[in-house]
Amino acid sequence: MLKGREKQIVDERIRKINELEENGINPFPYSFKRTTNCKELQEKYKDLKAETVTKDEVKVAGRLMSKRDLGKISFAKLQDEGAFIQIVSQDGETDEETRALFKKYAVAGDFVGVTGIVMRSNRGELSILIKKVEILSKAVYPLPDEHYGLKDKEERYRKRYLDLIMNQDVKEIFKVRSEIIRRIREFMHERGYMEVETPTLQPQHGGASAKPFKTHINAWDMPMYLSIAPELYLKRLIVGGFEKVYTICKNFRNEGVDHSHNPEFTMLEAYEAYADYNDMMKLIEDCWEYVALKVLGTTKIKRNVEGKVVEIDLKAPWPRKTTAEIIKEYTKLDVDKSSVEELKDFCKKNKIEVGENPTWGKCVEEILGEMVEHKVISPVHVYDRPKEGTPLCKRKRGDDRLNEQCEPIGAGMELGNMYSELNDPIKQEAAFDEQLKQKESGDEEAHEKDEDFLDSLRQGMPPTGGIGWGIDRMVILMTGAESIRDIILFPTMKPEGMIDKEENGKKKK
Predict the structure, then answer these.
(1) Per residue, what are the HEC states of 22-62?
(2) How far is it, in rounded angstroms, from Cα 362 to Cα 385?
(3) What is the CA radius of gyration of the chain?
(4) Domains present along the chain, CATH in parentheses
(5) Burial of 91 from C-beta contacts in 10 A (0-12 / 13-18 / 19+)
(6) In the β-sheet with 201-202, what is the strand arrangement from edge to edge?
(7) What is the pLDDT of residues 392-429, one digit of tens each?
C-alpha cells in the first residue's frame, strides 16, 4: 500500500491524467508513427559537430528517463529499445502550446512522441529540438531514482520490467540470449536436424532423474506431469523414421534453486540415428564454437570462477578424459583400482555423503561432483560414467561398470549430457524395473516404467546418439552472468509475502 511521499506523487499523476482528459487530450492514444529511432539517429549523426542545427525533421518515441526545467529551456533524456537521445524544448523555438504541455504534464516515466529538428548542443549532446510533443502513455508510478537505480537483486528479478527500464546492460544480455538461440537453430539446420515439438503435459514423467511437478487434467480426471525431459518422445520419432531431430523446450523439475538451477529452464535435446556418444561430443563442441564466433566474434570468454577472473576457450575440439582419468588428475585417487570400501573411506575422510551402502559407481559420481567439477575451467568431455548415472544408456564396450555417457564440464559446472542410447527393449525394461525398486525404496527421482515407450523400442530403434544441454548455462557462460536468474527474464521467485513471513520468523527466534 502506498504511503507518504510516494502516495502524493501517484495522486498528483492521476490528477494530471484526469486534467488532460478534461482538456480533450487522450493521455493513452492508440498509436504514433515514428520515422526513425534513437540508435539510427546516433549512428547517422555521429559526426555532427557541436552547436550545429540541421534542417532534418524526425519523429521519435520512447520513455522519458529524466527531465530538467530551466526556465526558458527544458531538457529530457528519451530512451527507446536501442539507445538514448536528448530532447530540448526552448522558448522561441518550440511553440507556446507545445512548450506548456511538455513543461506541465510530461514527467520521467512517461512515454512521449516527439517531432523535431536534429541538432547537437554546445555540450556535444545529440538532441532533437521539439516542434511538437504528444503524451503516449502517462506513467502512474514514478521510476526508481536514476542515480541509485534498481540495486536490490530480488526486486530486479521480481520486477523485471523495471530492471529492463533502468539497466541497459540487462537488456543487452537478453538480446544476446535471443541471438544465441537463433544461432543454435541455424547450426542445427545446417547439420540436417529437424526441429520438432514434444509435449509439456505428459501422463508419465521420464527421460531424466528428477522430481516432477504434478498437475491434473479435469477432462479425463487423471494426473499429469510437467515435462522433466523430452527424451522419450524424441526417441519415439527416431523409431518412426526421422533420423536427426532436436527440440528447444522448457523443462520443469521440482528441485532446489541455486545460481545454476531454476525449477523451469530451457534446454536443447537432439538425437541422431546411427550415431553414438562420440558423435554427440563433436556436435556440442562444434555448436558452441559456432555460436560463440557468430555472437561474440571469439571463442575466448572471461568469467569469474570462485573469485578469480579466468579465460575460458570454447574452441573445438574439447579435451576428452575418462571419469577415472580426471578424478586421478585432481585428487591422485585411482578409482579404477579402488574397491567400494576404499572409496567409502576416501569419501568419509573428505566429508562426502554417499549413504550407508553405496555402490562403486555412486562413490565415483560423488567424488567427481564434490572434488573435481568446480575446479574445471575450460570445457572438458568427461566420459565413461558409472552405470548408476542413467537407465537409458548403453553399457561401455568392455566394461560393464560404466555407461557410454559423457558430461562436458566447464566453468565449474556441468554443461551437457550425452549417451550412446539404449535401444535394446529387453535391457531397457529390466533397467526400468530396477528403477521401480528404487522408487519403492523412497527415491523420488527414480524413473517411471513407460510401457508405451517400451512398445516403441520393441518396434526397433536404430543405434542412436543423444545429447542435451542447458541453454541457460550456455547463456551464463557467453554473457558472463553470475546466476541463472540473470539470464531468465522471469525466474521462479518466492512470493513477497512468503519472504516477509520467513524474515519475521527469524526475528522471533
Answers:
(1) HCCCCCCCCCCCCCCCHHHHHHHCCCCCCCEEEEEEEEEEE
(2) 10
(3) 29
(4) 4-137 (2.40.50.140), 166-319+378-508 (3.30.930.10)
(5) exposed
(6) 201-202, 222-226, 214-217
(7) 999 999 999 999 999 999 999 999 999 999 999 999 99
- CA dist 325 and 446 (Å) reads 28
Q: How many angstroms separate the CA atoms of 385 and 392, rounded?
A: 13
- Please, what is the end-to-end C-alpha distance for the chain in angstroms? 28
What is 287-348 written as a DSSP string?
HHHHHHHHHTSSSEEEEEETTEEEEEE-PSSPPEEEHHHHHHHHH---GGG--HHHHHHHHH
- Half-sphere CA count of 144, side-chain side, radius 13 A: 16
* pLDDT value, residue 76: 97
Q: Give me the residues of the chain with pLDDT under 50, please.
A: none
User: What nine digits make up the cell of 369?
Assistant: 561432483
Bond from prior residue into 317 cis (ω within 30 degrees of 0)? yes
Nearest to 93 by CA among 64, 59, 129: 129
User: Cell 494530471 belongs to which residue?
Assistant: 16
User: Cα(467)–Cα(447) distance, rounded to whole angstroms?
Assistant: 18
Strand partners, 102: none
Rounded to 5 degrees, φ, ψ at 507 are -65, -40
Distance CA 405, CA 418 (A): 6
Among 456, 445, 392, 454, CA closest to 419: 392
Closest by CA position to 210, among listed 249, 270, 262, 252: 252
Q: Return the pLDDT at 151.
A: 73
pTM over the 0.70 mark:
yes
Q: Which residues does 128 contact at the CB level (< 8 Å), separation at least 6?
A: 41, 58, 60, 78, 85, 86, 87, 88, 114, 116, 117, 118, 119
Cα–Cα dist 227/250, whole Å:
8
Q: Which residue has the cell 563442441?
A: 285
Task: List all residues 6 or more positions away from 208 whose beta carbon is below 8 Å from its beta carbon.
Answer: 228, 229, 231, 251, 253
The SS3 assignment for 94 reads strand
Identity at 360, one-letter amino acid code = W
